[in-house]
Design goal:
Layout (H helix, E strand, L loop, with lengths): L15 H10 L2 E7 L5 E7 L1 E3 L4 E7 L3 H8 L2 E7 L12 E13 L3 H15 L3 H10 L4 E17 L2
């Protein structure tokens, strides 16, 4: 098991339950990978967090830079943050962010891919007709990914 640094500003650290809440309720984050020539490569992604297995699921194209990089190195970092809130009478925003380190893999099982796409779609809409059209038309072109976390940390930051 890889050793990860402890959070330096530990007084701002969120509990595991709050981290899961952010992962479940926010729709997007940035997936960062080891890029070509040592440059980091981060891209915005939609995700679904499964409380049942503690993993994050994504979908995207079957080809491209992301897939090429993930085949070379499966270690990733995924960062999610909420919209924030202001306390009464304060101008500063309070933002919760979660950072997930782990390993990502291509999902090769077609039934699992259909399940992931269904859960992702339902995170955005309850339009069943739209979901069925997407599954029929787009699913064959989709590559699903599963991120198995090795460390999840979160913090609440007051931007003042």
């Amino acid at each position: 098991m890889t050793m990860f640094r402890q959070m330096r500003r530990f007084k701002q650290q969120m509990c595991a339950e709050d981290c899961v809440f952010v992962l479940e309720n926010e729709t997007r984050g940035v997936l960062s990978m080891i890029g070509e020539d040592g440059y980091p490569y981060g891209i915005p992604m939609n995700h679904f967090y499964s409380k049942a297995d503690g993993k994050l699921y994504f979908h995207g194209a079957k080809e491209g830079q992301k897939i090429d990089l993930l085949r070379k190195n499966d270690k990733v970092c995924y960062t999610v943050f909420d919209k924030g809130y202001r306390r009464a009478g304060e101008w500063a925003l309070n933002v919760k962010s979660v950072v997930v380190f782990g390993r990502i893999a291509l999902v090769t099982d077609e039934e699992k891919a259909k399940e992931i796409c269904t859960l992702l779609c339902r995170k955005f809409t309850d339009d069943e007709d739209y979901l069925q059209r997407e599954l029929q038309n787009a699913l064959p072109r989709v590559q699903c990914l599963v991120l198995s976390p090795e460390q999840i940390t979160g913090k609440l930051v007051n931007e003042s």
